[in-house]
Amino acid sequence: MDFNVRKLATDAGIFFSRAVQFTEEKLGQAEKTELDTHFENLLSRADCTKNWTEKIYRQTEVLLQPNPGARIEEFLYEKLDRKVPPRPTNGEILGQFMLEAAKEFGPGTPYGSTLIKVGDCQRRLGGAEREFLQTSSISFLTPLHNFLEGDWRTISRERRLLENRRLDLDACKARLKKAKAAETKAASVPDFQETRPRNYVLSASASALWNEELDKAEHELRVAQTEFDGQAEVTRLLLEGISSTHVNHLLCLCEFVEAQAMYYSQCHKYMLELQRELGRRCPDSLDVNSHTARSPTDPSAFLPLNSASPLETDALQIEEVQPPASGTRKAKVLYDYDAADSSELSLLADEVIKCLNDVSTGILPIHPFV
Predict the structure, then answer these.
(1) In this structure, is residue 306 part of a structural domain?
(2) For a Cys staple, 192 with which of 87, 163, 196, 199, CB 3.0–4.6 Å?
């Protein structure tokens, strides 16, 4: 085992010197080399970019995969450098369940045939979601991840190295300052009386030692200053590259928006087709032409909240009960209704009422059934 004691002692001395300098700076007992304003602005901008990129990346992951267990599984596969196994979307699973249920109920029944149509639509919606997830992951999540794991790690490493160079530079400045003060004191006030010849020799020897120490401190300061300036220039170039990162992330964001718009457009198209297919079986309850002619952003293009759905209309048409031409018939209230004025009647859901058909006037008075 090659154990370099001299290198270990040198590294320990450098670490101790940096620790002393850092502690004295925090206590206000040592001077600190300040960076220029432009450099500080670049550092602040880089930190802001990193923080917000990380937040956007994490929240986009939550949007694309709301299940935390699935996200943890993908994270483990990524750390193990293994491919994530394909996972069906919720829409695809729901569509498969509906198709299997239709086989059990019978494809020829109204419920079974409707399950087939809706299940096929859900599978197409699930396929569109899968394509959207893949496109978003490649075009948006991957560039953000590469920045956090690649460029930002490089910037952080160079910043730490720059901080170490600054501590070394300030420590050299402190040693040079102490050496100058000691050399001046030794030259002006000798330690012994100057009447004895031996004291002149001691004073000259001490002055020579301090001059040598001063030259060494000046040399170390020049070396530290050169290393600090070089590292500051490297770090500055990396920080200025944040502007290019913003441009790249802007393009990725536009691609993400386009993929999201295409996904919702496909979903809207599939749902309109499903409404059109179901509307052929119950044309009185759904005007398909009016919905397809309107804009997707028009709220009137969708079914009212209190209107019966096509499936519910089919369920009501199965019985095909013909009302009598005149007389009295019973009816069951499906939804709560508040009377708008005195000419209407407030009704509650599941309430049974009777309708009196007046043949002469064609008016159907409605009364609660007792």
Answers:
(1) no
(2) 199
Cα Rg, the chain, nearest whole Å: 41
Cβ neighbours of 198 (radius 10 Å): 9
Bridge pairing between strands 327-332 and 366-368: unpaired
Instruction: Look at residue 266 and tell me if it is in a domain.
Output: yes
Residue type at 258 in one-letter notation: E
pTM above 0.70, yes or no: no
- Report the distance separating Cα 325 and Cα 321, nearest Å: 13
Q: How far is CA 296 from CA 240, 254, 265, 268, 299, in A?
A: 44, 22, 9, 8, 8
Q: What is the 8-class DSSP label of residue 308?
A: P
Q: What is the CATH number of the domain that holds 56?
A: 1.20.1270.60
Domain range for 179 is 31-187+215-283
> DSSP characters for 43-54?
HHHHHHHHHHHH
Write out the chain's pLDDT in tens, 370 residues: 455 666 666 666 676 677 777 777 777 767 788 888 999 999 999 999 999 999 999 999 999 988 888 778 777 877 777 777 778 889 999 999 999 999 999 989 999 999 999 999 999 999 999 999 999 999 999 999 999 999 999 999 999 999 999 888 888 888 888 877 776 766 665 554 444 444 444 455 656 666 777 788 888 889 989 999 999 999 999 999 999 999 999 999 999 999 999 999 999 999 999 999 888 655 544 444 444 444 444 544 444 444 444 444 444 444 444 555 555 667 777 777 877 777 777 888 778 777 665 544 444 445 444 3
Count structural domains, the chain: 1
Task: Kindly tell me the number of DSSP H helices and DSSP E strands found in the chain.
Answer: 11, 3
Query: What DSSP line would sit under 170-199, residue for residue?
Result: HHHHHHHHHHHHHHHHHHHS-SS-TTSHHH
Task: Decide if 79 is inside a domain.
Answer: yes
Evaluate whether 140 touches 252 at the Cβ level (below 8 Å): yes
**317 lies in a domain?**
no
